[in-house]
Design goal:
2 domains; alpha/beta; six-stranded parallel sheet; Rossmann fold; about 15% strand; single chain; three-stranded parallel sheet; about 325 residues
Length: about 325
């Protein structure tokens, strides 16, 4: 609420990282919350935008690389507010670090300043509206559409655990701000794919929320032993496992055009049938390959209130092609 008040007082939009706690909640109805910046903050779309004079950033570095690049490119005075006193700023875009409570800072500034909405804010609000209109008009089935549908279907007062690699990036790019009360949790930093299932089960043990985990196949395989806690502690968890048979994220890199060494050194396909994990730990396992089937299975899992895995089969080449086509549409139309 304090950050929303600060945003409204200054006329600044809030670029809400999906793990910030600001992209979802009642405050979205009355605040300028932006969630599509990972796509539209590219040099082509923003080349005629005025540069910001001041940027106020709270906490850890954003997930979005395009956003980090925009912060650097803007040349603005960037004030980093972090109660830990640590400059969590891998892109070195911040100008000054202030170690203080974000709520205190926001309330102090908003009580002293009141500014009109400026031209740059209007650019952000227009781009945000146009971006989601474009995304909503698409009907492609790919990993990003699973992330989007997951957020659409998940009921309010739910907790979603988001794995690293592509799941958190898809939630960042395709997670439309919503007034639903959703808590998103992710293991960022140096954790990689370690212990993601165990993190989700830990969350499930400490909340009455419906808990859903969005995870990739490699991270799922990496922490299979964590599933022992499901029945041992009578926990409820719905797992959405995106299976692109290896490191699909690496198709984003130039090395993907060079094979060898791409397949053996980067994609590393495992060719495993992960459905056998359901027999080992005693839960339902369903495999889908269309957005319609995913929606039906996820809604059914929510209604039955039981633990299960919904595996979504994804072709990594088609998935990357769809992402690139969508980005081209955004760049050409916003």
């Amino acid at each position: 609420d304090s950050l929303s008040l600060l945003s409204n007082s200054l006329g600044f939009p809030i670029l809400a990282d999906p793990l910030s706690g600001l992209r979802f909640g009642k405050h979205v109805e009355s605040s300028h919350i932006c969630g599509g910046y990972d796509s539209y903050l590219n040099p082509i779309t923003t080349k005629n935008w005025p540069n910001p004079d001041v940027i106020i950033r709270f906490g850890a570095a954003p997930i979005s690389i395009p956003l980090q690049n925009y912060l650097l490119r803007s040349g603005a005075y960037e004030l980093l507010i972090d109660p830990t006193g640590k400059a969590r700023d891998p892109a070195f875009s911040s100008s000054e670090l202030v170690s203080c409570d974000p709520t205190w800072f926001s309330n102090s500034i908003s009580s002293r300043l009141s500014l009109d909405t400026h031209d740059l804010s209007n650019h952000f609000l227009s781009a945000e509206s146009d971006y989601w209109a474009l995304i909503d008009s698409q009907n492609s089935f790919f990993e990003g559409s699973i992330a989007s549908s997951l957020l659409d279907i998940t009921p309010t007062n739910s907790t979603i655990i988001v794995s690293n690699s592509m799941p958190i990036r898809d939630i960042d790019r395709f997670g439309k701000p919503s007034s639903k009360q959703l808590t998103l949790i992710g293991n960022r930093g140096a954790s990689g794919i370690d212990g993601v299932i165990s993190t989700a089960l830990g969350a499930a043990s400490s909340t009455t929320d419906q808990v859903t985990l969005l995870i990739g196949d490699v991270a799922y395989y990496h922490d299979l032993s964590g599933l022992l806690a499901l029945n041992k502690f009578n926990l409820k968890l719905i797992i959405i496992e995106i299976n692109n048979n290896g490191g699909g994220i690496f198709y984003r890199l130039p090395i993907s055009k060079h094979d060898p060494p791409f397949t053996s050194g980067f994609r590393t396909p495992h060719d495993l049938d992960l459905s056998h994990s359901s027999n080992l730990y005693g839960f339902d396992f369903t495999r889908v390959s269309t957005i319609k089937d995913f929606n039906l299975e996820y809604e059914s899992a929510l209604n039955q209130n039981k633990s299960c895995v919904i595996e979504v089969i994804s072709d990594p080449l088609e998935n990357q092609s769809t992402r690139e086509n969508l980005q081209n549409i955004v760049t050409q139309n916003i």
